[in-house]
Amino acid sequence: MLYDLCEAKSIPHWRTKKWIIAQDEQQMQHLQDLHTFSKSIDVPTHFLSSREIQDREPDVRAEAGVLESPTTGIIDSHAFMAYLEGAFDEQGGDQVMNTIVTGIERLEGGDEGRGGGYAITTRSKDGAGGQDTITAEVVINSAGLGAIEISNMLMPAQRQRKAYFAKGTYFSYASGHPKPKTLLYPAPVPGLGGLGTHLTLDMAGRARFGPDVEWVDDPTDLTPNPARLKDAVDVIRSYLPSVDVGAIDLDYCGVRPKLGRTTGTYGKDGKGFADFYIKEEDGFPGFVNLLGIESPGLTSSLAIAELVEDMLYGENAKV
């Protein structure tokens, strides 16, 4: 779906493929579990032979094996978001920037179906201009780092959630060697809360590493932590031993919304993994929560939109 749009709208993209790399039998078993699960949901993956690994990425260390995702790739995320913004504007959408939601309540009455809808109270970020109220029959809570806070404004106490924030540091790489052409991921560590410090590429083929996982309480904390560098280097060298350690440096940070501290890694048959909570909440018709939408949320955005549209207006809609 995303590749089709990128091709139709001339959004730069590159089907790089992705390797998930195992160094021992235990890690190889995790890869086998992932392969089994991916087949169950029709996502293509396959194992590579030692010869294939050596021929394609000779600098990669993979003592036990490699699972390849042949359809994985990268896109120009800024160009993609610019397209979405333009499409939204063309359809008559209104954007209100620098505005904070301070309250939301369900309205009584209205016609059959979704009832009276919702009243959303907002204020400007700088506090000027007082408060405003927006009413809507349908509310899609896709507020990212603030989504759980907004959900808790409406949900009863027994259905409220705690927000968790995983700060991820990216590391730049100022060297031309080694120069992989594939996205490289270490085998997952159960309970880590992320996918390990992996190698990714930009549209120009430049490599960077990350993100790692650092649990924080403040989602606005975007300052790189120098103490994270050593552990990141150790992970990177486990699968790319010839990396120039002196060329690795702190780059920037992002923060991912999480549903818990042990989520974000998968086990057998996908069990133990929890993210992408997408639901029209029971007892609140027309209110759709999108919680824990972290990476690959942008990649999945078109599919999520299609799912939400079907949830609200498709054959199985509650109204």
UniProtKB/TrEMBL annotation:
Entry-linked Gene3D superfamilies: D-Amino Acid Oxidase, subunit A, domain 2, FAD/NAD(P)-binding domain
Transmembrane regions listed in the UniProt entry: none
InterPro entries: FAD-dep_OxRdtase, FAD/NAD-bd_sf
Domain FAD dependent oxidoreductase: 3-310
Flavoprotein in keyword set: yes
Keywords: FAD, Flavoprotein, Oxidoreductase
Cofactor(s) this protein cannot do without: FAD
Domain of life: Eukaryota
Leader peptide range in chain numbering: none
Annotated catalysed reactions: (S)-2-hydroxyglutarate + A = 2-oxoglutarate + AH2
Record GO terms (molecular function): (S)-2-hydroxyglutarate dehydrogenase activity
Enzyme class: oxidoreductase
EC number, as in UniProt: 1.1.99.2
Family statement drawn from the similarity comment of this UniProt entry: Belongs to the L2HGDH family.
Protein name: L-2-hydroxyglutarate dehydrogenase, mitochondrial
Organism: Exophiala xenobiotica
Lineage: Eukaryota, Fungi, Dikarya, Ascomycota, Pezizomycotina
